[in-house]
Design brief:
Number of helices: 2
CATH class: Alpha Beta
Strand order of the largest sheet: 1-2-3-5-4
CATH architecture: 2-Layer Sandwich
Number of strands: 5
Number of domains: 1
Largest sheet: 5 strands, antiparallel
Bound molecules: guanosine-5'-monophosphate
Distance between the termini: 21 Å
Structural class: alpha+beta
Strand content: 15-25%
CATH superfamily: HIT-like
């Protein structure tokens, strides 16, 4: 699955530009975390890189290794800030249509706040 061309008008690009409102829970120079509009768990956050990252995990290259590591570390930090560390949580990165991906801007889901069901 080759990486698609980045669409500057995808929903997360518009959230980054504040053209679409979102409830941000964390941001720094590289990443923004906000609440998912249709939560699949009591706490459901999306963590995204700023800028124009690969559209999906399939588009990642060696050059992205550091960014992906920091993305995961940021998600772990935000999960802790949201009080999820004690009982645990799930990190999910969907890829393509069979993976259930609907927004073509690399992102990591943080799901928690209660017991989750099976992975799929
Ligand atoms: P995906 O299915 O691509 O892995 O995840 C995309 C997520 O973005 C979905 O969980 C969906 O609910 C969320 N989402 C879609 N549109 C919006 C929006 O306008 N605002 C926010 N906060 N989340 C959105």
């Amino acid at each position: 699955m080759p990486d698609a061309e980045y669409d500057r008008n995808n929903i997360f690009a518009r959230i980054l530009r504040n053209e679409i409102p979102s409830t941000r829970v964390y941001e720094d120079d590289e990443f923004v975390a906000f609440r998912d509009i249709a939560p699949a768990a009591p706490v459901h956050l999306i963590v995204i890189p700023r800028g124009e990252p690969p559209t999906s995990p399939a588009g990642l290259t060696e050059a992205d290794a550091g960014m992906v590591g920091r993305l995961v570390l940021t998600a772990v930090r935000v999960a802790a800030e949201q009080g999820l560390s004690e009982r645990g949580y799930r990190l999910v990165m969907n890829c393509g249509d069979h993976g259930g991906q609907s927004v073509a801007h690399l992102h990591l889901h943080v799901l928690g706040g209660g017991p989750l069901g099976p992975v799929a």
